[in-house]
Amino acid sequence: MKRFQFRELQAATENFSSKNILGKGGFGIVYRGQLPDGSLVAVKRLKDGNAAGGEAQFQTEVEMISLAVHRNLLRLYGFCMTASERLLVYPYMSNGSVALRLKGKPPLDWITRKRIALGAARGLLYLHKQCDPKIIHRDVKAANILLDDCCEAIVGDFGLAKLLDHRESHVKKMHQEKQLDILVDKGLGSKYDRIELEEMVQVALLCTQFLPGHRPKMSEVVRMLEGDGLAETV
């Protein structure tokens, strides 16, 4: 893992130009950058860099994130640390996030969406159970699931997340009222499997139950998405 100089990342992002912004989130702003060798990167400039703990703590956390290596996880390429700045450098994902891709054209087909869901689940399973030390994501959302050149799911922003509130959801209400078709992206039309939709919504609801002890393990989620049946009904 490379430690970058701040001036290197300034140059790569054209002094953090607004035209290079890929996205903004709770942790900071992400910029598209190009290194001297021509490779493209995503540079995350963390908010309140001078308040993100001491240098030793930040470096320890960065090293922990870098140890998580899996086909469906965003690899940490490098970092930068100054008295007032904290930055993380990742490979550039040409297809952006799931959140952005769902708004694009042509719409993702049902098979691709299923593959993305399963890939994300496999990445989270690795974080929760297989890497050392284990990392709980706590901020899984469409904006944090990226897509590589082959539209494979790449889970990002792990190791940085904060706890979220858990509230009754619109999805749960639609499930109870048997109106799941309302949840389907209109761009799909009728080109999806109604039974698979029902199963995937049930998996999502199991994962977001209020009591943590009632939620399935990621290994169970992967098995359910692979078609081995639901652990229980919602």
Automatic annotation (TrEMBL):
InterPro entries: Kinase-like_dom_sf (IPR011009), LRR_Rcpt-Like_S/T_Kinase (IPR051824), Prot_kinase_dom (IPR000719), Protein_kinase_ATP_BS (IPR017441), Ser-Thr/Tyr_kinase_cat_dom (IPR001245), Ser/Thr_kinase_AS (IPR008271). Its EC number is 2.7.11.1. SMART domains: S_TKc. It catalyses: L-seryl-[protein] + ATP = O-phospho-L-seryl-[protein] + ADP + H(+); L-threonyl-[protein] + ATP = O-phospho-L-threonyl-[protein] + ADP + H(+). Keywords: ATP-binding, Kinase, Nucleotide-binding, Serine/threonine-protein kinase, Transferase. Residues 16-234 form the Protein kinase domain. One of its GO terms (molecular function) is ATP binding. The keyword Kinase applies. ATP binds at residue 44. Belongs to the protein kinase superfamily. This is non-specific serine/threonine protein kinase. It comes from Miscanthus lutarioriparius.
